[in-house]
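[Q] Does anyone have a clean structure-token version of this?
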Amino acid sequence: MEIRRTTPSDMDILRRLWNLAIKFQQEGGYPVWPEFPEGLIYKKMDQGLHFKLVSGSKILCYFSISMNDRAVWGDRDLDDAIYLHRGVTAPEFRGLGLTRFVFEWARIKARLLGRKYIRIDTWGSNKHLVDYYIRAGFKPAGYRQMGQNPELMEHYNNLNLALFETEAD
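[A] Here you go.
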């Protein structure tokens, strides 16, 4: 297994996995993502910040990172963290610990970039993910009630976010 940057040729697979994740969210009674953010994905690709975990030619999961997330983390964003976003795992590979592999990769990436933390957020009402992030070693960093922010995807509007961070070392 290895982590590589995604490319435009991956877009159909990324979209299919996103839609399967939405179906999983709906069926599980979890909060549901909006439609596939193709423009945002292309932008992250262009910035070199969109990644896939692969085994051979098979995409097992994908995610993006950001170097800043002031819209969510406010004054706590001090250029000292990388932020993980929009992680999607192919259904046939859920439950295999792939996200923990991504977290370890993120620790190394953060250290290489001179960043102290890895940060992540989720819906405050998503107890399943809140508990998972804590089990994975992330410390709760509080909740943030979002307002309307045109910098963020629409589903962030008026959302209560649970914030988590872990040290890169």
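[Q] Thanks! Anything notable?
[A] The radius of gyration is 15 Å.
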